[in-house]
Amino acid sequence: MDTFVENYDFDGITMIPFCTSGGSGVGRSDKNLAEHAGSGNWLKGERLSGSASESDIENWISNLK
Question: Residue 7: its pLDDT value, please?
Fold first, then answer.
């Protein structure tokens, strides 16, 4: 992921990193990706449960607005 964000221009783009997991969280991944990218508007990342339903994901997305 670091190599990808280092080589992509995120100017004018809002990025919201997320992952699915049954245990571990996002940690500093969102901040690290933003630092490597050097551009774009990076919001706080989120860990969604590996068993998140479509409704759970829709709720999370609707709360971002």
Answer: 94
How many Cα neighbours within 13 Å face the side chain of 63? 8
6-53 pLDDT tens trace: 999 999 999 999 888 777 777 888 889 999 999 999 998 888 988 999
Q: From 24, 25, 23, select the one nearest 45 (Cα to Cα).
A: 25
38 CB neighbour count, 10 Å cutoff: 11
Question: Are 55 and 26 a contacting pair, CB within 8 Å?
Answer: no
Contacts of 33 (CB under 8 A, 6+ apart): 1, 2, 5, 15, 17, 42, 45
pTM of the model: 0.75
Q: Which of 25, 35, 47, 50 is nearest to 2 (CA)?
A: 35
